[in-house]
Amino acid sequence: MTPLMSLTAPAPDANAAPGPADAATVELRGLRRAFGTTTALDGLDLTVRPGELLALLGPSGCGKTTALRMLAGFEHPDSGEILVDGKDVTTVPAHRRDAGMVFQSYSLFPHLNALDNVAFGLRMRRVRTAERRARAAELLELVGLADKGDRFPHQLSGGQQQRIALARALALRPRVLLLDEPLSALDAKVRLTLREEIRRLQQELGITTLFVTHDQEEALSMADRVAVMRAGRLEQCAAPAELYARPATAFVAEFVGTMSRVPGRLLASGATVEVLGRRLPVDGTPPSTGDGADVDVLVRPESLGVTVDRAGEGRVLGTSFLGATVRVSVALADGTLVKADVPAHDAGRPAVGEPVRLTLPDRPVLVAPRAT
Amino acid sequence: MARLTARPTPATAPWRALVLAAAALYFLVPLAASVVFTVDVPGRGVDLGAYTRILDTEGFLPSLLLSLELAAATIAVVLLLLVPAAVALRLTAPKLRPVVEVVCAAPLVVPPIAFVAGIGTVLKWGPEHLSRTPLFQTFVAVQNPDFPVVLVLAYAVMALPFAYRALDAGLRAIDVRTLVEAARSCGASLPQALLRAVLPNLRGALLSASFLTLALVLGEFTTAQLLGFRPFAVWIVNISGSQAQMSVAVSVMSLLVTWLLLLVLAGFGSRRTPSSTSDRK
Ligand SMILES: Nc1ncnc2c1ncn2[C@@H]1O[C@H](COP(=O)(O)OP(=O)(O)OP(=O)(O)O)[C@@H](O)[C@H]1O
Ligand SMILES: [Mg+2]
């Protein structure tokens, strides 16, 4: 692993934090950017810790790409600032930002072969030919394409092109690695392997990385922390497990993983909710809608139990086989659609049209104001 | 698509041959007739005299050279004008593209006669009103018969529609913005990014823009004739009045010269530039 070491070794700073291999801290403060009447970023605050992989997750058009491009220096904020290691880089031009970027679309230079693509940045920095070749070859090796150095982009598959683009982005040993949906143009299988490979590389190099995606599974499986954005703002930034188990807002709850809304009633103290015929404690602060208010209880499909029961108030609308589990769609008496996962080997798997009863475990539940 | 053209099904093959033959007839028969006319002297059999006489005729070489110089200058002007404009258009103001398209197509709509009449008027009017200013000298210099800059300017305008089309097609094939951004994130300044990442990928487009401009300048007659200059096309027409056989010989030769130049340009363009990191042995 000696070649790897040389890739991660910027001269150690005297007062550097003991973070992994002197990785950078990135802070976005109150970033705002409007394009005409659309507000792409509306006061985005975000801190990326040294050496972590932070996934930027959010629905289409919420400003993920804009945020990333600002960090890369391609876009300028109307207000707010960007700090790398505490230094304001907002006015630093893109080519001096020290940020490697992998784009969503294939962005290799069509006139250069793989090796020259990777060596492009080194050439811009006037690195000598011999050294350049050695470094580029080393990087190609790192992404597992050592034998494809003389291929041109059009002779490479999509996955291979993105790997080369990754090698190119890493060639200048950037402090920050920016990935804008690098896998979205690839087919599912390549996506999975490349996802793991990016993660492995990132961990080996210990480089601070921002990964934009709108695929929640990708975000949850790869990232150290996931930042969920909505309409140009940060909703929540937390580790994947926490994000899934304890979403801070109803938006996060429904965006990350599958969430069903079950109608319930908030009881007097506001600390208990009546749902599916039981009383359960409310997780976190309940919405301030007053006593006896109608609310929605947010439940994950895997925490709902389904039992066939003639007196049940739910009716099975459909089932879909997901491998280990079967997802059952149930319509409640008032028409609400609820999704529940039951183990696939379960003998008592409900059939379509059957009446069923839904049960919740004895745990605190998340509550959101009733959706209209 | 490529596979379709490479392996024609048996059913389509005869059609292709037929179309090819028809096209070949259409082009080759007049050409062959011209060649025969120039070499076949009644009663004396084949005689290449018409061709050898060309070289001795007064004005052949100067007019050909003038045309080539004009072509080179026009290509330079058109590319220097269009390439930065078209790239900037893609990078910063894509909404202005239709406007530029219309402006660049405008020379096609203006008849050459009207165009020349306009230029002629300006050239006459200018010296009269500006005789006591330094601009007067500019007007004289622009019309220097050894190298009429005014023709370069006129040709640049006339070549605009073709060159723009060619360039636009080239730009359409690449994602200029992403390429520039990728280069910039690799540490290239904006000029470097354009020079190293965008221009090399436009080689085909630059080449075809140059092709079209070259062909236009070599064949242009109206403007040069009416403004009183004597590039190759004007010279051909001038001598054709006196010597019918030789003028056809000249036409055949000018065709060959043009093809030769285009071939040279094409060879120049398709040669792989050795990329500095990998191909050095
Ligand atoms: N150059 C631009 N000009 C005008 N509007 C823009 C521009 N760039 C982005 N926008 C707008 O800003 C908003 C945020 O765009 P952005 O590309 O950051 O979204 P995103 O989160 O990356 O979405 P996606 O997941 O679809 O890529 C969108 O409404 C978009 O239309
Ligand atoms: Mg985007």
UniProtKB/TrEMBL annotation, chain B:
Query: InterPro entries of this UniProt entry?
Result: MetI-like, MetI-like_sf
Query: ABC transmembrane type-1 domain spans which residues?
Result: 64-265
Its membrane topology, per UniProt?
Multi-pass membrane protein
Q: Which keywords label this protein? A: Cell inner membrane, Cell membrane, Membrane, Transmembrane, Transmembrane helix, Transport
Tell me where the transmembrane regions lie: 62-87, 99-127, 147-167, 205-228, 248-268
- Look up the domain of life of the source: Bacteria
The text of the family note is: Belongs to the binding-protein-dependent transport system permease family.
Please name the Pfam families in this protein's record: BPD_transp_1
Name the chain's protein: ABC transporter permease
The answer to whether keyword Transit peptide applies is no
Intracellular or extracellular location(s): Cell inner membrane; Cell membrane
